[in-house]
Amino acid sequence: MTVFQSALMYRNLRLLFYLLLLTAAAYLGSNLLIFYTELKLVNHVPRLVDQTVAPPAKNGSPERKDYKILMERNLFGIRLDSAPVAPKKSDLLGNIDKLALTTLNCTLVGTVIQENGQSWAIIRDNQTSRDEKVSTGGTISGAKVMAILRNRVVLNSGGKDELLVMGIERIRAGKDTQGRKKPHSSASDTPDKGAVRPPEVLTAPLTTPEKKSRTLSSED
C-alpha cells in the first residue's frame, strides 16, 4: 500500500466519524426539543374544576292530588300488589318477651353485639351439624334473621316471629319434665267449686204401733 492510498483511507474514516457524530447530535437535539415542547404543554393545561349540576327547577304549578285520591278509592277495582311492610325494630324489641320459642332444630352457639349495627351470631343447624355465621337480614334453615341481641336471636319463619335463645334444649327438656310430673286429675275425682250440691233430705225414724203404745203407757 502506497502512502497515497493510506492517506485517502485515513481521510475517509475521519469523514465517517464526523458524519456519525453529527447524526447523534441531531437525534439528541430533536429529542430534547420534543421533551421541552411537551413540558410546556403540560404546564399550560387548565386544572379540572368540580362542577355540580344544579337540579332542574320545579314548576310553580301546585301538585295535583286528584290522581292520588282516585288511586286510594280504587274506583275501577284494580288490584294493587303492595309489598308487606316489615315491622320496625323498636316494635319488635318491645314485644320480644311475648314471642314463642322457635320450632326450628337449631342451636344458638353465641352472639357478638356491636354498636355500629354489624352484630352477628353463630347458629348451628342440628340436622347438618354445621355452624353458620349470620347477621341481620341473613337466613338460616329457611328462616330470616330479624334481630340479634345478647344471647338470643329473633327469627321469622313462615311469616311468624320466633325466638332462638342460648340453652334452648335445656328449656325444652325442663318443660317436658314438668309435663310428665304433673298428675292428670279427672272431673269425677276433683270437686267443682262452682257446682251446686242437692239439698240433703232428713228422714225421721219410723215407730211401730207397739212402741207407740208403750210410750203412752209409760207417760200415764
Describe the structure.
This protein has five helices and seven strands. The protein is α+β, with helices and mostly antiparallel strands. Among the domains are: 42 residues; 84 residues, Roll (SH3 type barrels). It has a four-stranded antiparallel sheet with strand order 4-5-6-7, with no helix packed on it. A three-stranded antiparallel sheet has the order 1-2-3, with no helix packed on it. β2 and β3 form a beta hairpin. The radius of gyration is 52 Å and the shape is elongated.
Break the fold down into its secondary structure elements and pairings.
Blueprint: H1 3-43, H2 66-73, H3 89-94, E1 106-112, E2 120-125, E3 130-135, E4 139-140, E5 143-149, E6 152-157, E7 160-165, H4 168-181, H5 209-219
Antiparallel strand pairs: 1-2, 2-3, 4-5, 5-6, 6-7
Look at the structure and give the mean pLDDT: 72
Strand content: 15-25%
What name is given to the CATH topology of the domain at 89-172?
SH3 type barrels
Report Rg: 52 Å
CATH class of the domain at 89-172: Mainly Beta
Shape: elongated
In the predicted model, the low-confidence regions spanning at least 5 consecutive residues are: 185-190, 199-213, 215-220
Number of DSSP E strands:
7
Query: For the terminal residues, how far apart are their CA atoms?
Result: 204 Å
What topology, given as strand order, has the largest sheet?
A: 4-5-6-7
